[in-house]
Amino acid sequence: MVGVEPLVDALDLEPTGEGTFRGQHVVANNYGVVFGGQLLAQSLIAGLSVHEGKRAKTLHIIFARGASPESPLDITVEQLHGGRSFGSSTVTIAQGDRVCTRALLLAAGDDDDVIHHEDAMPAVGEPPTVDAGDEWQVEVVGDVDVSDPDQVGPPELDVWSRFPGAPTDPVTGQALLAFASDGFLIGTAMRPHPGVGQSQAHKTLTTGVVSHTLTFHQPFSAADWLLLSHHSPFAGFGRCYGRANAFTPGGTLVASYVQDGMLRPRDPSKGAL
Fold first, then answer.
1. Is 222 helix (H, G, I), strand (E, B) or coil?
2. Which CATH number fits domain 4-110+135-265: 2.40.50.140, 3.10.50.40, 2.40.160.210, 1.20.1640.10?
């Protein structure tokens, strides 16, 4: 599991020049690549650095290449537009001359409602009461194990998530939800298929996120429980697609996200992408 304090520390990007930052890694994994959620979170923080007084509305990122946990990240921000209501910027993450990701951020202030509606939260009961201390806490609803290739179910997955003790400011909350949003949609797409599970990733299957888009609707705190409700409407041709909503325990819809993933047999003689 990921400690909340080192994750928040990794969001504190080091300025290295005009519109440039150095990013450190929160945790290494067994796959030799940086977790995509970290790149999402750092892209959001960097992109907002040129939009004072605004929050992220939408973040769209393309994962061009895997980033190595052995080297820091070079992050470059370019402001496209800055207005009273909206701003936009691009964020490029590279290691040396190797571009890993490029993101487009739309920032916005608040306006009054003209119309208002939101999807209802699924009926999954109350959030867990287990205290995980100072680590990111994740609890899958029901007896579901997406790592088990023999466990088959619908292409749906509900996950409770919180970051105990995390700062409650809106921008940190958005970055932490971005981090959490990356981890479950490929596993959701695997659920209906016997003999396929996340335990096979990077072993007999090559999997990876190709693109990811988050849209934030209403303020929230990532220190409190959020229900991440996932659904994969399509998988095929070596790809999988999924979407999700994030709700507070009271049923408020705070964010939505979609993801395109890659899922194909692994050829050890070739690189991941």
1. coil
2. 2.40.160.210
Side-by-side strand order, sheet with 253-265:
14-17, 20-23, 73-82, 86-95, 98-108, 55-63, 205-216, 253-265, 239-247, 226-236, 156-162, 137-140
DSSP 223-234: TS-EEEEEEEEE
233 by Cβ neighbours in 10 Å (0-12 / 13-18 / 19+) ranks as exposed
Give the residue among 209, 160, 188 at the shortest CA–CA distance from 36: 209
Tens of pLDDT along 244-268? Answer: 999 999 999 999 999 999 998 877 6
First vs last C-alpha separation in the chain: 26
Question: For residue 186, which of 166, 211, 167 has the smallest C-alpha distance?
Answer: 211
**What's the CA gap between 273 and 129, in Å, rounded?**
40
Distance CA 267, CA 246 (A): 35
Residues 62, 95: contact at Cβ < 8 Å? no
**CA 199, CA 100: separation in Å to the nearest integer?**
25
Mean pLDDT of 125-137: 87
Distance CA 23, CA 42 (A): 7
pLDDT tens-digit series, residues 210-246: 999 999 999 999 999 999 999 999 999 999 999 999 9
Bridge partners of residue 211, in order along the sequence:
62, 260
Which segments of 97-251 are extended strands (E)? 98-108, 137-140, 156-162, 205-216, 226-236, 239-247
Nearest to 212 by CA among 172, 260, 254: 260
Residues in the chain: 273
Kindly list the domain boundaries of the chain, sorted by start residue: 4-110+135-265
